[in-house]
């Protein structure tokens, strides 16, 4: 089986109070825990209303960018399996003990060729969704702000997207749903790859760029209507919007990009078709990348490709 | 009573074949007539599926920009009434004979202080909507492209918006639903005014700029969903989009701006609250004009304020 | 000019505490006043977030059904004009003093041929919308429940809809946007009429039935999406739903019908095309009334036609 | 890995011409093949615009109900694996040769405890989606009718839902996302189960009822807006609607149920949350089944539970 989903994004924020206002009041995430890490850093843990594990987002005060990603596997044995594959791929893998991350079980940790830290785990403390599991309501009666139900995916940069695609394929069992290539020829270069192990249109995308950087992480919304409403709320809450409501050609998703108070790029994302491993990978050629990324404007803006954390 | 609605926009296009492709195939308007004017110019007449009068858009080959607007009054006697008021305002009014505009009755014609030509008429040949008047369907079973139901409003520029507001008030019985002012002080300058005589949030808006120019004319859509779909179709049809889907602060409407093949700016517009003359006029101060015009990006782009036809 | 809009519905409820929970917590109306009337009845006054007059809904404890409707005119002089027309129509008109209705100016009152009480007034205390009039947000940042912006229209029953249509035409200057008739022949009977004086698709509809009864009064919503969400919230709040989300053939509006705790039928309503007096009246024949009322099920249910208050 | 998705539903229709009109003109499916089977039955093969395999729906003239379901596995070896598990479960499994179903490879076939025929296969002729795989549009420029993108799931009846749940778990590797039980006690009876092997909220649901029957099969839509539009089109095309637009409590999906001309129940379905095997199964108790099935009306109607094909 392998990777079930992106379990958590652990990111840095420059100011915890501002960050809490953003993630709790504007995005409507639920705080499940806060503490001070061993090294003295303040941390806050969040989940969306429709998530049942203890947290899907960890904020850590000090700096910006991503500390690490947690990937949840379906079976305990998947950890060992991925460990073997990671070693076979040439990665240095360390064991992670239960409790190194609050409410997360043991597992493994390694640094990707793109210099991002990945943790793989099977167990997380069950917290329950905000609607419960018995005769639930369709959504919580009193949502706050955007009311994001769940973490969805992330986009990172790498000096070698092709190598990352191979790693994600060989070690994580991912497959590419969409790709941007320099051409349709055999000897094309890979500009970016959108990858998943399940029916989500992507769990992790990788585009060419500096090592170890975060482009954005995204929360799932239900519809284009919710995407528009999210943008309205961001204006009311003075959240800087990077890209106003539009559709992606790649994934067909509908989107708003914006920044948290520390400058980390967030996205709210809806739609996108169901991915299946037997669907032919959609290939975009780089001359159509504007339309691929922003289906309506059909052009990339410089900020979108250069601002990373 | 006075003005019932904006009955038609008569605009110039550089190439009729391209224009027809845009207005018929992409926007889904219905061609009701085509002819050659007395001066040899090719003309095509269109209506939206939910309009019952003979046409609401006239394209005339040769140049760009607006030739004139037609304003339909509720009662025959409104024509005389408006003629009196126009003369009292100091405008030069001429009589317009039935048939000067195909399928349009007699009326009056005058040039506004902003140097736009306005025609006022009461009678138009009944054509019927595409769903008919007996046990109609909710919409036509086979719409083409965007499938715009109706012309909605226009925005023009004027060297003196205050004078235009006064003219529209005194002669047409319009009231301002929203305004952009340099300040909230008594002695503010008027940057723009959104005016109507009915419950449409605006029939005509006027902003400061050169005389006689067209900023855009707009077609009405039902919802934010239709606005997003319209933008998708414009990408498929290679229509240049000026402003991707967003909300206006002013009017609260939801919008896409785009250009016809001649460079005339069009809009699809949905939402906006019902206007009433006793509602306090919404006032925007110029420091908030970014948020007023584009609620999500909160900034004007230069193209939007400078490209006119 | 005549009638500007339906200014208020004044209705009876059996239990004020239950009613407040429904109108404030589920529908999200804003309480602007409460008092005890001269006759000892408890009253509560509400407005929607996008209304600027002091109230649009009055609840009075004791019984069910409608006490009266308030109709707001554009000009002070419209009151006298309507008074003359009402007398000419043969109605008995009485003068209503400022303050007989809290925060409402003077005017006239008469009983319609359908035995409903109508009040006509020009002045109401300005309260302001919940977003204000200076650089407003697109909607209030913290809406409650359905968050209905405004009262929209009402449907009443009458033993003689034809007479009521004539009265509304002659006295109020209304016109019929849609009609249900027994046939398309000249000598048809009128089953129901949807009437307005402005661009709202209806302000008051009248169908055949007992005198003096209320079928429903409706609040305006923005979209089909809001209609669906309103139904979800009603389930969460145990509000009895009469008709689940659907479209009307008549008016094209999208709708949920439900009951307040006293058994008065409410509606949330979105869409419907802009009405204009020169649009041909849409005529439904009674054999198509199922499709006319409920476009999807295409059949009336008995409860809908028989439960009145 | 096991089952990747429901690959095809093969159903009987009484009249092929009427059926083609329904599935092609109203639902907007694409006919990819038609032939006459060995036994003389006329057959037509369809796919949705966003499907890439040769077909997802087979119509066979003669009778009503489901002939069989095809389940596509990710790896060739999954067929043998499922064969072993099916035999271990006590099912009689036969081998199916390539070409027994046009454009479908070899595999296995068995009859479930509920007396439905299941086929398991790995290979289908690639046909390609209607938008292609290179720089695709977001959807086909000229969709017909509802324009359903893909087959989604089916609901069948069984005398022993618990046994079917066990079979689907043991043989197909499915897990229950939602369940209806007589109570929350250990010794409850199972009224129905909603099962999946991937992130679709259900691929197959089983409720108590007669053996071998079809309740419905469903096509996926993008949004509540598309669900409403589908219902509008069904009225225009005189398609009998069983349940007008509403939400399910179970799965949270948004839905319209309707009948094809032969009386087979169809559904269009949007939304529903992403399923994951570690999410606690949602349990509905039978006293809340009305709200579970129809979230807005909160009551089952007799037709829905008794009309099967």
From TrEMBL, chains A, B, C, D:
Cofactor(s) this protein requires: Fe(2+)
> What is the name of this protein?
Metapyrocatechase
Q: Give EC number(s), comma-separated.
A: 1.13.11.2
Q: Which parts of the sequence belong to the VOC domain?
A: 5-123, 150-271
Keyword rRNA processing assigned: no
Catalytic activity reported? catechol + O2 = (2Z,4E)-2-hydroxy-6-oxohexa-2,4-dienoate + H(+)
Q: Which UniProt keywords apply?
A: Aromatic hydrocarbons catabolism, Dioxygenase, Iron, Metal-binding, Oxidoreductase, Repeat
Cite the record's note on assembly: Homotetramer.
Alphabetically, the GO molecular function entries are:
catechol 2,3-dioxygenase activity; ferrous iron binding
Taxonomic superkingdom: Bacteria
* Stored SUPFAM superfamilies: Glyoxalase/Bleomycin resistance protein/Dihydroxybiphenyl dioxygenase (SSF54593)
Gene3D superfamilies reported for this sequence: 2,3-Dihydroxybiphenyl 1,2-Dioxygenase, domain 1
By sequence similarity, the record places it as follows: Belongs to the extradiol ring-cleavage dioxygenase family.
Is Secreted one of the keywords UniProt gives this record? no
| Cited Pfam families | Diox-like_N, Glyoxalase
